[in-house]
Write a structure and sequence with these properties.
Blueprint lengths: L5 E8 L5 H17 L3 E10 L18 E6 L15 H11 L1 H11 L4 H4 L5 H12 L2 E5 L2 E2 L5 H11 L1 H8 L4 E8 L5 H11 L4 E4 L2 H10 L8 E3 L11 H7 L11 E5 L8 H20 L3 E4 L11 H8 L8 E3 L6 H9 L3 E4 L2 H9 L4 E5 L7 H8 L3 E3 L5 H13 L1 H18 L2 H4 L1 H4 L4
Parallel strand pairs: 1-2, 1-4, 2-3, 4-6, 5-6, 6-7, 7-8, 9-10, 9-12, 10-11, 12-13, 13-14
Helix pairs in contact: 6-8, 11-16, 13-14, 15-17
C-alpha cells in the first residue's frame, strides 16, 4: 500500500499585500516543498474563518502553490475590501469580544472534550479549520513580530491572539516548530508567560536577528537553548531570480548625488503627532534637496493593505510640489519579483519599510532606513552592514536624515559589497529554517 501523504500545516499567514510578508511566506513554502516530498500543505490565515472566502483576495502569491488556505479559528473583522481607517478602539473591542468563543474552544480542548462534540457549535468553515489541525502531521508556525505595547491589557490581548493557534496545536500535542520570527522585550509578565507557553510547545524555534535570539533565550530561561537557532529571514528563500535581475540592473552612476532615489513611506502614528510631523518634514527635506539637484524621486508601494495604507500621507507629500514631473508614484500592487526589478532600477533607497530595504540590498541598491518600530527585526539590516544607516522614527529630524542619506551614498561601494556577501550567505543558509526540523520533529 502506498505511503500516506504527509500533512503539513502552516500557521498564521498574514496578508500578502505587504510584500515583505509575501516574500517570507513564498520563501517558507519553497523551503517546505524542497525539504519534504509526497505531502499535502494547508495554510491557516490570521483572518478568521468568518471572513472566508473574502480573505483569499489577500493571498495573490499563495495561489501559485498547490495549498489549501483556511480561515483561522479566531474571528476577525479586517476591512478587506474597504479603503478605511477604523477606530483602533472599536476594532480591538470587536475583536476581543468575539475572541471569547475561541478561548472557550481552547479550554474545551484542554479539558479533552471530543472535537466531534465541539463541531456542533462551530460553523462549516471553522469545522474545516479544526479538522485540518487535528489531521496535521507537522505544524510549522510562521513567526511574527512579537512586539510590546504601552498598555499592558492591549499587550496581553495581542500576544494571546498571536499565539492562539500554536497554543491550540500544542494542546493537541502536534509536532510543531516556530520559524522566522522576531521577539521584542515584552512589558507584562503575563504576556511573557503566554509567549513562553507557546514556545515551550515548539520542538524547534528559529529567529531572524541577534536581539530576538537573546530575547528568546532570556524568555525561556536559557533552558534547552539547542532548540533555538539564529537563522536568516525567510524572505531570502524567495530571491530565486536575483541573479537574473542583477544582470539587468541599472548601473549606479559615479556622481556626487544619486540620480534616481526611491522612497517607501509609512504613515506611523504610534509615536504621536509630533514624531509623525517630524517624519513628514524629513521626507520633504529629502525630496526638496534632490529635486534641486535634478534627481528623480520614485515612491514605491511596498504595502497596499487597504486598512494599513499610507496613501493619504503620500498624497499630502506629493501634492506639495509643483514639479510633479520629478516625482513618480508607482501605481498598482507590484509583486515581489516586480519590486525587486523596480529597486534594481534605483540608485538609492530611503526605506521606511524594512523589507523594502532587504529587497533593495538584494539587488545591490545602496540605502538607508527609518525604523518606525525600532528593535527586533531591524537588526537584519545591521547584519547586512547598514547598522550605521538606520534612524529611529521617533528621533528623526530633516538634518539627521539628509546627513545619513549622503553618508550612505558616499560609502555606497563598500556597503554594497558587504551586503552582497551577507545576502549570498543568507540565501544559502535560509534553508536551515526547515531542514533542521527533521532533528526535532520527524523524518522526511
Amino acid at each position: 500500500m502506498a505511503d500516506k501523504k504527509k500533512k503539513i500545516l502552516l500557521l498564521d499567514f498574514v496578508s500578502e499585500k505587504n510584500r515583505g510578508d509575501a516574500a517570507r511566506q513564498v520563501g517558507l513554502l519553497k523551503l517546505v516543498y524542497q525539504n519534504f516530498h509526497d505531502l499535502e500543505v494547508s495554510v491557516i490565515s490570521v483572518f478568521g474563518a468568518n471572513q472566508y472566502p473574502a480573505l483569499k483576495d489577500e493571498y495573490d502569491h499563495l495561489n501559485k502553490f498547490p495549498v489549501t488556505i483556511l480561515g483561522g479559528l479566531n474571528p476577525t473583522f479586517y476591512p478587506i475590501h474597504q479603503h478605511t481607517h477604523r477606530s483602533n478602539f472599536l476594532f480591538e473591542l470587536a475583536q476581543a469580544i468575539c475572541s471569547l468563543p475561541s478561548l472557550l474552544l481552547l479550554i474545551a480542548l484542554k479539558l479533552k472534550i471530543q472535537p466531534g462534540l465541539l463541531n456542533r457549535f462551530l460553523s462549516n468553515e471553522y469545522r474545516k479549520t479544526l479538522k485540518q489541525i487535528l489531521e496535521a502531521d507537522i505544524v510549522i508556525w510562521k513567526g511574527q513580530n512579537i512586539r510590546p505595547r504601552n498598555n499592558w491589557i492591549l499587550e496581553i490581548y495581542r500576544i494571546f491572539i498571536s499565539v492562539y493557534h500554536p497554543l491550540l496545536c500544542g494542546i493537541l500535542t502536534k509536532p510543531m516548530a516556530c520559524v522566522g520570527g522576531s521577539v521584542w522585550s515584552l512589558n507584562s509578565p503575563i504576556s511573557r508567560y503566554i509567549l513562553r507557553s507557546a514556545f515551550n510547545k515548539c520542538a524547534f524555534i528559529s529567529v531572524r536577528e541577534e536581539s530576538s535570539y537573546l530575547e528568546t533565550l532570556k524568555l525561556l530561561g536559557n533552558q534547552d537553548s539547542s532548540r533555538v537557532e539564529l537563522l536568516p529571514d525567510l524572505s531570502f528563500a524567495a530571491f530565486n531570480d536575483r541573479k537574473a535581475i542583477l544582470q539587468k540592473r541599472r548601473r549606479i552612476p559615479n556622481t556626487i548625488y544619486p540620480q534616481i532615489i526611491g522612497l517607501t513611506i509609512v504613515d506611523w502614528k504610534d509615536d504621536g503627532k509630533e514624531a509623525r510631523n517630524s517624519y513628514k518634514e524629513s521626507i520633504h527635506r529629502i525630496i526638496d534637496f534632490f529635486i534641486e539637484k535634478e534627481s528623480l524621486i520614485v515612491i514605491i508601494p511596498q504595502v497596499t493593505k487597504k486598512w494599513e495604507s499610507s496613501s493619504d500621507l503620500i498624497l499630502q507629500i506629493v501634492t506639495a510640489y509643483d514639479k510633479k514631473s520629478s516625482i513618480t508614484c508607482i501605481e498598482g500592487e507590484p509583486t515581489v519579483d516586480e519590486l525587486l526589478s523596480i529597486y534594481s532600477n534605483l540608485d538609492f533607497l530611503v526605506a521606511t519599510r524594512m523589507h523594502s530595504a532587504i529587497f533593495a540590498a538584494a539587488v545591490n541598491t545602496p540605502l538607508m532606513a527609518i525604523s518606525y518600530d525600532s528593535g527586533g527585526k531591524w537588526g537584519i539590516l545591521g547584519d547586512l552592514g547598514y547598522e550605521d544607516y538606520i534612524i529611529n522614527y521617533a528621533e528623526i529630524t530633516p538634518e539627521k536624515l539628509l546627513c545619513k542619506v549622503l553618508s550612505s551614498w558616499e560609502n555606497r561601494e563598500q556597503l554594497v559589497v558587504n551586503a552582497e556577501k551577507k545576502i549570498d550567505e543568507n540565501i544559502v543558509n535560509v534553508g536551515m529554517n526547515i531542514s533542521k526540523l527533521n532533528k526535532f520533529t520527524i523524518s522526511k
